[in-house]
Amino acid sequence: MAIEIERKFLVDYNKWQAADKPVGSKLKQGYIVDDENRTVRLRIAGTAAHLTFKTGTTGITRNEYEYEIPADDAAELFTQFVKTSLEKTRYCLTHDNKLWEVDVFEGDNEGLIVAEIELDSEDEPFMLPPWVGQEVSGDTRYYNSSLSVKPFKSW
Amino acid sequence: MAIEIERKFLVDYNKWQAADKPVGSKLKQGYIVDDENRTVRLRIAGTAAHLTFKTGTTGITRNEYEYEIPADDAAELFTQFVKTSLEKTRYCLTHDNKLWEVDVFEGDNEGLIVAEIELDSEDEPFMLPPWVGQEVSGDTRYYNSSLSVKPFKSW
Predict the structure, then answer these.
(1) Which of A14, B69, B71, B98 is the most interior residue, by most CB within 10 Å?
(2) Handedness of CA B3, B9, B10, B11 (dihedral sign)
(3) A80 to chain B: which residues are within 8 Å by CB?
(4) What's the N-to-C CA distance of chain A in angstroms?
(5) DSSP B122
(6) What residue of A is the nearest CA neighbor of B36?
(7) Domain residue spans in chain B?
(8) What are B29-39's pLDDT values in tens digits?
(9) SS3 assignment, position B81
Protein backbone atom coordinates (compact mmCIF):
# COMPACT_ATOMS: atom_id res chain seq x y z
CA MET A 1 0.00 0.00 0.00
CA ALA A 2 1.21 3.49 -0.84
CA ILE A 3 0.05 6.83 0.51
CA GLU A 4 -0.68 9.25 -2.31
CA ILE A 5 -0.64 12.99 -1.52
CA GLU A 6 -1.49 14.98 -4.61
CA ARG A 7 -2.39 18.55 -5.50
CA LYS A 8 -4.15 19.30 -8.74
CA PHE A 9 -4.27 22.44 -10.90
CA LEU A 10 -5.90 23.58 -14.10
CA VAL A 11 -3.47 24.26 -16.93
CA ASP A 12 -3.58 27.35 -19.18
CA TYR A 13 -4.12 26.01 -22.70
CA ASN A 14 -2.09 28.67 -24.57
CA LYS A 15 0.86 28.62 -22.17
CA TRP A 16 0.90 24.83 -22.26
CA GLN A 17 0.82 24.81 -26.06
CA ALA A 18 3.84 27.17 -26.10
CA ALA A 19 5.82 25.23 -23.47
CA ASP A 20 8.62 22.74 -24.11
CA LYS A 21 7.07 19.31 -23.62
CA PRO A 22 8.32 15.74 -23.50
CA VAL A 23 6.62 13.03 -25.56
CA GLY A 24 3.27 12.10 -24.03
CA SER A 25 1.79 8.66 -23.50
CA LYS A 26 -1.78 7.67 -24.27
CA LEU A 27 -3.74 6.39 -21.29
CA LYS A 28 -7.10 4.65 -21.37
CA GLN A 29 -8.68 4.13 -18.00
CA GLY A 30 -11.96 2.82 -16.73
CA TYR A 31 -13.70 2.30 -13.42
CA ILE A 32 -14.78 -1.10 -12.14
CA VAL A 33 -15.89 0.38 -8.82
CA ASP A 34 -16.69 4.06 -8.36
CA ASP A 35 -18.18 4.65 -4.92
CA GLU A 36 -17.96 7.83 -2.91
CA ASN A 37 -14.93 6.75 -0.91
CA ARG A 38 -13.31 4.11 -3.06
CA THR A 39 -12.46 3.37 -6.65
CA VAL A 40 -11.12 0.38 -8.54
CA ARG A 41 -9.46 1.60 -11.72
CA LEU A 42 -8.14 -0.31 -14.72
CA ARG A 43 -5.55 1.66 -16.70
CA ILE A 44 -3.99 0.64 -20.01
CA ALA A 45 -0.90 2.52 -21.22
CA GLY A 46 0.49 0.89 -24.36
CA THR A 47 1.51 -2.63 -23.39
CA ALA A 48 1.36 -1.94 -19.63
CA ALA A 49 -1.81 -2.34 -17.59
CA HIS A 50 -2.53 -1.80 -13.91
CA LEU A 51 -5.35 -2.35 -11.49
CA THR A 52 -5.47 0.40 -8.86
CA PHE A 53 -7.52 0.45 -5.67
CA LYS A 54 -7.90 3.87 -4.04
CA THR A 55 -9.66 4.86 -0.82
CA GLY A 56 -10.28 8.10 1.00
CA THR A 57 -11.28 10.25 -1.91
CA THR A 58 -11.61 13.40 0.17
CA GLY A 59 -8.83 15.93 0.73
CA ILE A 60 -5.49 15.43 -0.99
CA THR A 61 -4.34 12.18 0.69
CA ARG A 62 -5.37 8.69 -0.46
CA ASN A 63 -4.37 5.09 0.12
CA GLU A 64 -3.41 3.43 -3.11
CA TYR A 65 -2.84 -0.24 -3.98
CA GLU A 66 -1.58 -0.95 -7.48
CA TYR A 67 -0.97 -4.23 -9.32
CA GLU A 68 0.34 -4.80 -12.82
CA ILE A 69 -1.65 -7.29 -14.88
CA PRO A 70 -1.08 -8.76 -18.37
CA ALA A 71 -2.12 -6.43 -21.20
CA ASP A 72 -4.19 -9.13 -22.90
CA ASP A 73 -6.19 -9.69 -19.72
CA ALA A 74 -6.61 -5.95 -19.29
CA ALA A 75 -8.16 -5.51 -22.72
CA GLU A 76 -10.71 -8.25 -21.94
CA LEU A 77 -11.41 -7.01 -18.41
CA PHE A 78 -11.89 -3.49 -19.80
CA THR A 79 -14.69 -4.74 -22.04
CA GLN A 80 -16.31 -6.90 -19.39
CA PHE A 81 -15.90 -5.04 -16.07
CA VAL A 82 -15.49 -1.33 -16.77
CA LYS A 83 -18.58 0.83 -16.29
CA THR A 84 -17.28 4.28 -17.28
CA SER A 85 -14.02 5.31 -18.92
CA LEU A 86 -11.95 8.14 -20.35
CA GLU A 87 -8.83 8.70 -22.46
CA LYS A 88 -6.05 11.22 -22.10
CA THR A 89 -2.43 11.88 -23.02
CA ARG A 90 -0.06 12.20 -20.08
CA TYR A 91 3.10 14.28 -20.07
CA CYS A 92 5.62 13.79 -17.23
CA LEU A 93 8.07 16.59 -16.57
CA THR A 94 10.06 18.11 -13.74
CA HIS A 95 9.87 21.66 -12.44
CA ASP A 96 12.07 22.80 -9.57
CA ASN A 97 13.08 19.15 -9.03
CA LYS A 98 9.50 17.96 -8.54
CA LEU A 99 7.65 15.64 -10.90
CA TRP A 100 4.52 17.02 -12.56
CA GLU A 101 2.04 14.93 -14.51
CA VAL A 102 0.01 16.88 -17.04
CA ASP A 103 -3.10 15.18 -18.43
CA VAL A 104 -4.55 16.41 -21.71
CA PHE A 105 -8.03 14.91 -21.84
CA GLU A 106 -9.73 13.66 -24.99
CA GLY A 107 -13.16 12.76 -26.27
CA ASP A 108 -15.95 14.20 -24.13
CA ASN A 109 -13.33 15.77 -21.83
CA GLU A 110 -11.48 17.58 -24.63
CA GLY A 111 -10.46 21.11 -23.68
CA LEU A 112 -9.52 20.10 -20.14
CA ILE A 113 -5.85 20.01 -19.13
CA VAL A 114 -4.96 19.18 -15.53
CA ALA A 115 -1.56 19.13 -13.81
CA GLU A 116 -0.80 17.07 -10.70
CA ILE A 117 2.13 17.13 -8.34
CA GLU A 118 2.77 14.31 -5.87
CA LEU A 119 4.02 15.47 -2.47
CA ASP A 120 5.72 13.81 0.50
CA SER A 121 3.53 15.65 3.02
CA GLU A 122 0.35 17.73 2.80
CA ASP A 123 2.18 20.98 3.68
CA GLU A 124 5.25 20.48 1.48
CA PRO A 125 6.12 23.73 -0.31
CA PHE A 126 6.76 23.69 -4.08
CA MET A 127 7.15 26.05 -7.05
CA LEU A 128 4.36 26.42 -9.62
CA PRO A 129 5.27 26.04 -13.30
CA PRO A 130 4.31 29.07 -15.46
CA TRP A 131 1.48 27.22 -17.25
CA VAL A 132 -0.31 26.30 -14.00
CA GLY A 133 -3.55 28.07 -13.12
CA GLN A 134 -6.27 27.62 -10.50
CA GLU A 135 -5.94 24.84 -7.91
CA VAL A 136 -8.77 22.27 -8.08
CA SER A 137 -7.50 19.68 -5.55
CA GLY A 138 -10.71 19.69 -3.52
CA ASP A 139 -13.11 19.82 -6.45
CA THR A 140 -14.70 16.41 -6.95
CA ARG A 141 -15.75 17.29 -10.53
CA TYR A 142 -12.11 16.97 -11.55
CA TYR A 143 -11.63 13.47 -10.14
CA ASN A 144 -10.97 11.21 -13.11
CA SER A 145 -13.72 8.90 -11.87
CA SER A 146 -16.14 11.87 -11.96
CA LEU A 147 -14.94 12.93 -15.42
CA SER A 148 -15.69 9.43 -16.70
CA VAL A 149 -19.33 9.88 -15.62
CA LYS A 150 -19.87 13.63 -16.14
CA PRO A 151 -17.33 14.69 -18.75
CA PHE A 152 -16.00 18.26 -19.03
CA LYS A 153 -17.94 19.06 -22.22
CA SER A 154 -21.26 18.37 -20.43
CA TRP A 155 -20.66 20.95 -17.67
CA MET B 1 -7.46 -15.68 -18.79
CA ALA B 2 -8.59 -19.18 -17.94
CA ILE B 3 -11.80 -20.95 -18.85
CA GLU B 4 -13.37 -22.54 -15.81
CA ILE B 5 -15.81 -25.42 -16.36
CA GLU B 6 -17.15 -26.65 -13.04
CA ARG B 7 -19.91 -28.90 -11.79
CA LYS B 8 -21.15 -28.59 -8.25
CA PHE B 9 -22.83 -31.10 -5.91
CA LEU B 10 -24.21 -31.17 -2.40
CA VAL B 11 -22.29 -33.42 -0.01
CA ASP B 12 -23.89 -35.89 2.41
CA TYR B 13 -22.85 -34.73 5.87
CA ASN B 14 -22.64 -38.16 7.52
CA LYS B 15 -20.81 -39.83 4.64
CA TRP B 16 -18.38 -36.91 4.49
CA GLN B 17 -17.75 -37.11 8.24
CA ALA B 18 -16.94 -40.80 7.89
CA ALA B 19 -14.68 -40.38 4.83
CA ASP B 20 -10.87 -40.23 4.79
CA LYS B 21 -10.00 -36.57 4.37
CA PRO B 22 -6.82 -34.58 3.79
CA VAL B 23 -6.06 -31.54 5.97
CA GLY B 24 -8.29 -28.64 4.99
CA SER B 25 -7.34 -25.00 4.52
CA LYS B 26 -9.30 -22.03 5.85
CA LEU B 27 -10.52 -19.62 3.19
CA LYS B 28 -11.97 -16.18 3.77
CA GLN B 29 -13.44 -14.57 0.71
CA GLY B 30 -15.34 -11.41 -0.04
CA TYR B 31 -16.91 -9.71 -3.02
CA ILE B 32 -15.83 -6.30 -4.29
CA VAL B 33 -18.19 -6.55 -7.26
CA ASP B 34 -21.19 -8.88 -7.35
CA ASP B 35 -23.29 -8.18 -10.43
CA GLU B 36 -25.48 -10.67 -12.24
CA ASN B 37 -22.85 -11.59 -14.82
CA ARG B 38 -19.58 -10.68 -13.14
CA THR B 39 -17.86 -10.87 -9.82
CA VAL B 40 -14.62 -9.53 -8.39
CA ARG B 41 -13.56 -11.71 -5.47
CA LEU B 42 -10.83 -11.24 -2.89
CA ARG B 43 -9.75 -14.52 -1.28
CA ILE B 44 -7.34 -14.91 1.62
CA ALA B 45 -5.94 -18.38 2.39
CA GLY B 46 -3.32 -18.19 5.11
CA THR B 47 -0.50 -16.02 3.75
CA ALA B 48 -1.71 -16.24 0.13
CA ALA B 49 -4.23 -13.82 -1.33
CA HIS B 50 -5.78 -13.55 -4.77
CA LEU B 51 -8.01 -11.20 -6.70
CA THR B 52 -10.29 -13.10 -9.08
CA PHE B 53 -12.45 -11.65 -11.84
CA LYS B 54 -15.18 -13.96 -13.16
CA THR B 55 -17.67 -13.41 -15.95
CA GLY B 56 -20.52 -15.39 -17.41
CA THR B 57 -22.10 -16.64 -14.24
CA THR B 58 -24.67 -18.74 -16.04
CA GLY B 59 -24.27 -22.40 -16.92
CA ILE B 60 -21.12 -24.23 -15.84
CA THR B 61 -18.51 -22.34 -17.92
CA ARG B 62 -16.91 -19.06 -16.84
CA ASN B 63 -13.99 -16.85 -17.80
CA GLU B 64 -11.64 -16.36 -14.89
CA TYR B 65 -8.75 -13.92 -14.39
CA GLU B 66 -6.74 -14.38 -11.22
CA TYR B 67 -3.90 -12.33 -9.72
CA GLU B 68 -1.91 -12.94 -6.56
CA ILE B 69 -1.50 -9.88 -4.34
CA PRO B 70 0.47 -9.32 -1.11
CA ALA B 71 -1.27 -10.66 2.01
CA ASP B 72 -0.84 -7.36 3.88
CA ASP B 73 -2.58 -5.48 1.08
CA ALA B 74 -5.32 -8.11 0.96
CA ALA B 75 -6.17 -7.67 4.64
CA GLU B 76 -6.53 -3.90 4.15
CA LEU B 77 -8.47 -4.22 0.89
CA PHE B 78 -10.79 -6.74 2.56
CA THR B 79 -11.73 -4.15 5.19
CA GLN B 80 -12.08 -1.29 2.72
CA PHE B 81 -13.51 -2.79 -0.48
CA VAL B 82 -15.40 -5.98 0.36
CA LYS B 83 -19.19 -5.69 0.58
CA THR B 84 -20.17 -9.25 1.54
CA SER B 85 -18.05 -12.20 2.64
CA LEU B 86 -18.01 -15.79 3.85
CA GLU B 87 -15.64 -18.30 5.40
CA LYS B 88 -15.15 -21.98 4.70
CA THR B 89 -12.67 -24.81 5.01
CA ARG B 90 -11.58 -26.34 1.72
CA TYR B 91 -10.48 -29.96 1.27
CA CYS B 92 -8.76 -30.96 -2.00
CA LEU B 93 -8.78 -34.64 -2.90
CA THR B 94 -8.72 -36.90 -5.94
CA HIS B 95 -11.35 -39.46 -6.94
CA ASP B 96 -10.92 -41.54 -10.08
CA ASN B 97 -7.95 -39.32 -11.04
CA LYS B 98 -10.00 -36.12 -10.95
CA LEU B 99 -9.52 -33.30 -8.45
CA TRP B 100 -12.45 -32.52 -6.17
CA GLU B 101 -12.69 -29.46 -3.95
CA VAL B 102 -15.00 -29.86 -0.99
CA ASP B 103 -16.03 -26.67 0.83
CA VAL B 104 -17.35 -26.94 4.38
CA PHE B 105 -19.02 -23.61 5.02
CA GLU B 106 -18.95 -21.77 8.35
CA GLY B 107 -20.79 -19.00 10.16
CA ASP B 108 -24.18 -18.23 8.63
CA ASN B 109 -23.58 -20.94 6.03
CA GLU B 110 -22.81 -23.68 8.57
CA GLY B 111 -24.42 -27.00 7.65
CA LEU B 112 -23.70 -26.58 3.96
CA ILE B 113 -21.05 -28.75 2.29
CA VAL B 114 -20.47 -28.44 -1.44
CA ALA B 115 -18.17 -30.42 -3.74
CA GLU B 116 -16.86 -29.08 -7.05
CA ILE B 117 -15.09 -30.81 -9.89
CA GLU B 118 -13.27 -28.88 -12.61
CA LEU B 119 -13.67 -30.34 -16.10
CA ASP B 120 -11.88 -29.94 -19.42
CA SER B 121 -15.13 -29.84 -21.37
CA GLU B 122 -18.80 -29.47 -20.48
CA ASP B 123 -19.61 -33.06 -21.45
CA GLU B 124 -16.58 -34.75 -19.88
CA PRO B 125 -17.64 -37.94 -18.06
CA PHE B 126 -16.46 -38.55 -14.49
CA MET B 127 -17.11 -40.81 -11.49
CA LEU B 128 -18.99 -39.52 -8.46
CA PRO B 129 -17.41 -40.03 -5.02
CA PRO B 130 -19.66 -41.91 -2.52
CA TRP B 131 -20.33 -38.82 -0.39
CA VAL B 132 -21.68 -36.79 -3.33
CA GLY B 133 -25.43 -36.09 -3.54
CA GLN B 134 -27.66 -33.85 -5.63
CA GLU B 135 -26.13 -31.73 -8.39
CA VAL B 136 -26.63 -27.97 -7.88
CA SER B 137 -24.51 -26.59 -10.75
CA GLY B 138 -27.30 -24.46 -12.17
CA ASP B 139 -28.69 -23.25 -8.86
CA THR B 140 -27.66 -19.63 -8.31
CA ARG B 141 -28.37 -19.88 -4.55
CA TYR B 142 -25.22 -21.98 -4.21
CA TYR B 143 -22.93 -19.45 -5.90
CA ASN B 144 -20.49 -18.32 -3.25
CA SER B 145 -21.33 -14.73 -4.12
CA SER B 146 -25.01 -15.52 -3.42
CA LEU B 147 -24.16 -17.31 -0.16
CA SER B 148 -22.30 -14.21 1.00
CA VAL B 149 -25.54 -12.21 0.62
CA LYS B 150 -28.20 -14.83 1.46
CA PRO B 151 -26.49 -17.41 3.65
CA PHE B 152 -27.67 -21.01 3.91
CA LYS B 153 -29.08 -20.62 7.44
CA SER B 154 -31.47 -17.91 6.23
CA TRP B 155 -33.11 -20.11 3.57
Answers:
(1) B69
(2) negative
(3) 38, 53, 55, 63
(4) 34
(5) T
(6) A81
(7) 2-154
(8) 999 999 988 99
(9) helix
